[in-house]
Design brief:
Elements lengths: L1 E2 L9 H25 L3 E8 L2 H14 L5 E5 L14 H4 L8 E5 L2 H11 L4 H20 L2 E9 L1 H4 L2 H4 L4 H6 L3 H15 L6 E5 L3 H20 L32 H19 L8 E8 L5 H9 L7 E5 L14 H4 L8 E5 L8 H4 L5 H20 L2 E9 L2 H13 L9 H7 L2 H15 L6 E5 L3 H19 L3
C-alpha cells in the first residue's frame, strides 16, 4: 500500500488547467486501446470515510473518460433478493467485461467494515472476511481483471465525527465506535493491499490533487494492461499427483428395471422430493444440483424427472456448453454466479463450473495453471454458497464406453433423437480415458461433506433416475433438520 505525501497546499488552479488536457487525451487513447484489445478489464474500487469526496471524484472521471465503456455502480444496503443470495453474488453481477472499466463505490469492503464495526463483531470476523476478499480479488486478477483500489482520507471531515453523524450513513451505523472504525480501516487496508490489487491512500479533501493523482493512476494501469504487465501475476503450473481411477466408476451390469416397478418407485421418490422442497424448512435454504457425466449418460432424463415433480415457480434449469463470445469477456465462474438460485428455490446445472477441470483440461482450452488452480477456486465458490444457506449436491452419472456407443447408435438411428448426437460426441470418445482420469481427479479434489459428489451407476437409465431422487431425499432429510 502506498501513502500519498500530503503537500502543504492544494494544486493550484493554473497547474490543474495546464495538466488536465494532456491527461484527458491520454486517458481516452488508453481507454479505446483497452477496448480494442479486449483481453483485460479495469476495476477501480473507490472507498473512504466521506461520500462527498468519492462522489466528486466520480464526477471528474465522468468528464475525462468515455462513459459508454465504464460501468459505475454504487452499492448500498443489500436488497431483499440480495440478502437471499451468497455474499459476493451482487458484485459478480456487475463485474466489468474485458475491454471495459468498472467503477465501484461501496464495494465488498463496506460489507466487511459494517459487519465488524457496525454490528460490534470481533476482529477475527473481519480478518476472516478480508481473507475471502483477498482470494476473490486474486482470482479476478488471474482472470484478467486488473484491480486498483483508492482510499480517500478526509481528515477535515473525520475531525468531528459527531458533527457528521447526522448526515453520513456509515457514521450513524457505527454509533460511538469511531476508534473501532479507524482501527478496522487500518487493518483492512494493510491486510488487503496486495501486488495484484493494491490500495492507494489519497487526501480526498484536496480535490484537484486528488483528481489528478487518480487520473494518472488509472492511465498508468491502462498502459500496463496494454504493455502486457497485467499478466505479471501468474501461477506456476501445478504438480498434481494422478488420482487412481475410482472403483465406483466401474459397475456390474444390472437387469433393466421392469416398467411397472420403475413407475411405482419413481412416483414414490418424486412425491417425497416435492414434499421436502415445499416444506417450511426449505424456505430458509436453497438447493443447487450439479450434473456431470459422459455424453449420453442420461443427465437430461434425470433432470426431467426431478423437474416434473416440482412447482415450476420453484426451480430453474441451466444447461451449459462452451462459453459464447459474450461469456468469454468475464471470469469463467461468472456465468455460474449469475444463475444461482435464491434461498427457497432449486437451481439445476446441466454441466457446470466443473467444465474447467474436465473438457477445458482435456481439450487444452485451459492451461495447466488455469485448471490446476480451479480446484481451489471451485471449492471456494461452493463454500460461499453453503455459508449463505444453500445446499450443494453433485452427481456424476457413470456409464461404460460400450453403453455409450450403444446409445450413440440408437440416437443416430432414431429420427427424433438425431439432434442429440454430434460429430464432437464421436470425437470425444477417442479421449475416453483422459476424461475418466480428469473426472476421477475432479471428484477426489472437490468432494466434501457439505458439497458431496455422488457417483451413480447409469447403465440402466431408469435405475439411475430413481437412485438420484433417493439420494436427494436422504440428503435433504438430514440437512433440513440442522
Amino acid at each position: 500500500m502506498t501513502k500519498e505525501s500530503r503537500p502543504p497546499g492544494q494544486v493550484s488552479k493554473a497547474t490543474f488547467r495546464l495538466r488536465v488536457p494532456e491527461l484527458r487525451e491520454q486517458l481516452l487513447e488508453a481507454q479505446f486501446d483497452l477496448r480494442a484489445r479486449a483481453h483485460s478489464a479495469l476495476l477501480l474500487v473507490v472507498a473512504g470515510s466521506e461520500p462527498e469526496s468519492q462522489s466528486a471524484l466520480g464526477h471528474r472521471l465522468a468528464e475525462w473518460l468515455d462513459m459508454r465503456f465504464v460501468e459505475t455502480k454504487a452499492f448500498e444496503a443489500p436488497s431483499k433478493l440480495e440478502r437471499k443470495m451468497p455474499w459476493l453474488w451482487r458484485y459478480w453481477q456487475k463485474l466489468p467485461a474485458k475491454g471495459t472499466t468498472g467503477l465501484f463505490y461501496g464495494s465488498w469492503y463496506n460489507d466487511a467494515l459494517l459487519s465488524t464495526v457496525g454490528e460490534g463483531l470481533d476482529a477475527a470476523v473481519l480478518e476472516n472476511q478480508l481473507r475471502r476478499i483477498n482470494n476473490f480479488e486474486r482470482m479476478l486478477s488471474l482472470e484478467s481483471i486488473r484491480i486498483l483500489k483508492v482510499w480517500l482520507d478526509d481528515e477535515e471531515a473525520e475531525g468531528d465525527i459527531k458533527k457528521k453523524r447526522g448526515r453520513a450513513e456509515q457514521w450513524r451505523s457505527f454509533g460511538s465506535g469511531g476508534d473501532r472504525w479507524h482501527a478496522a480501516v487500518e487493518d483492512m487496508l494493510t491486510l488487503t493491499s496486495t501486488g495484484h490489487a493494491p490500495w492507494v491512500r489519497i487526501d480526498g479533501a484536496r480535490s484537484r490533487s486528488r483528481d489528478l493523482r487518480v487520473g494518472e493512476m488509472v492511465l498508468q494501469v491502462m498502459k500496463q494492461v496494454k504493455d502486457g504487465a497485467a499478466d505479471a501475476l501468474s501461477v506456476a503450473s501445478p504438480v498434481l499427483e494422478r488420482a487412481p481411477l475410482r472403483a465406483s466408476f466401474v459397475f456390474d451390469s444390472e437387469e433393466p428395471l421392469p416398467s411397472e416397478v420403475y413407475e411405482e418407485d419413481l412416483k414414490k421418490q418424486q412425491r417425497k422430493f416435492s414434499k421436502r422442497i415445499a416444506s417450511s424448512a426449505f424456505k430458509k435454504r436453497g438447493l443447487l444440483l450439479v450434473f456431470e457425466g459422459a455424453d449420453a449418460a442420461g443427465k437430461g432424463g434425470v433432470i426431467r424427472r426431478i423437474s416434473e415433480s416440482l412447482d415450476p415457480r420453484l426451480f430453474e434449469v441451466h444447461p451449459y456448453s462452451a462459453p459464447n463470445v459474450y461469456e468469454r469477456l468475464y471470469p469463467y465462474l461468472w456465468r455460474f454466479w449469475v444463475n444461482l438460485p435464491p434461498l427457497g428455490r432449486v437451481g439445476i446445472f446441466d454441466r457446470s463450473h466443473y467444465g474447467r477441470v474436465l473438457v477445458e483440461r482435456v481439450e487444452s482450452f485451459a492451461d495447466a495453471a488455469q485448471w490446476g488452480r480451479a480446484y481451489t477456486e471451485i471449492s471456494s465458490f461452493e463454500k460461499q454458497l453453503i455459508r449463505s444457506g444453500m445446499m450443494v449436491q453433485k452427481f456424476w452419472l457413470s456409464i461404460s464406453k460400450e453403453e455409450q456407443y450403444r446409445r450413440f447408435q440408437e440416437r443416430r438411428n432414431t429420427p427424433w433423437k438425431r439432434h442429440k448426437i454430434t460429430d464432437e460426441d464421436w470425437r470425444n470418445r477417442e479421449r475416453w480415458d483422459e476424461y475418466q482420469v480428469a473426472a476421477s481427479e475432479m471428484i477426489a479434489r472437490t468432494h466434501s461433506a457439505d458439497a458431496p459428489w455422488h457417483v451413480v451407476n447409469s447403465e440402466d437409465k431408469k435405475r439411475a433416475r430413481i437412485e438420484v431422487l433417493r439420494i436427494l431425499n436422504e440428503e435433504l432429510d438430514g440437512r433440513l433438520k440442522r
